[in-house]
Amino acid sequence: MDIASLIGFIGGIAVLLFTILSSGELSSYIDPTSIVCTFGGTILMTLGGFPMKKTVEALKSLRHVFVYKELESEGIIKSIIDLANIARKEGLLALEEAAQQLNDTFLQKGILLIVDGTDPELVRNILETELSFIENRHKSNQAFYEYLASMAPAFGMLGTLIGLINMLRNLSDVSSLGPNMAIAIITTFYGSFVANYFCMPVVNKLKLRSSQETLLKEVMLEGMLSIQAGENPRIIEEKLKAFMSPKLREKLSSDKEQSEGE
Questions:
Q1: How far apart, in Å, are the Cα atoms of 15 and each of 12, 22, 35, 122?
Q2: What is the crossing angle of helices 246-261 and 73-90, to 10°?
Q3: Residue 3 lies in a domain
Q4: What residue numbers bound the domain in which 140 lies?
């Protein structure tokens, strides 16, 4: 569970409610016509802009904003170093049994390609193609919410224009000025709310998740190619540490010293 996302979304609602209730009534901000115009129009135009399959995939990706298991780079590097030690002592064919125990399908696929004697350049091409496909899928999900973020203010503005037109056409009817002005203002409020409170934070979080996953996949790729090239496990470890922050490098070194001391 991502606590930061929960705090952000719940806290945002709390701040908004506090601001509304401190200066007025919540009922003043609820208008069925504005809701239909802004939310209905935004959803329908987004559905019109994306195939149903992509829409379903994007909606499923929303869970990664709140529920996400952080991939630990130090754990990945340790697994690669263990595989390198096995390959150095027992040969590449011995990696087949170790590969079956790996939890990451990307790493497992790469190791099995190496065991099968696949050419290193072909291994790189296959894994980079898969990595590219993963990145494209992530970008497609992000684009869905970016499109949603652009449609919400657009329909908020349309609602504003409709409200202003109705108001100007009925200036002689004083009783209609208030409702029409409410539609004009509240639709803009709804559009801004959807874009800035929901869509943009979701896009940013998905981009962050994608960046983290892509980086770890690149670490795996470099590690596997180094194993296939027969490089020394210590050299491989130092090479992969380049992908890590100084803090994580120190943690990995301290964990290694502790395990060797035991």
A1: 5, 11, 21, 54
A2: 50
A3: no
A4: 32-62+70-262
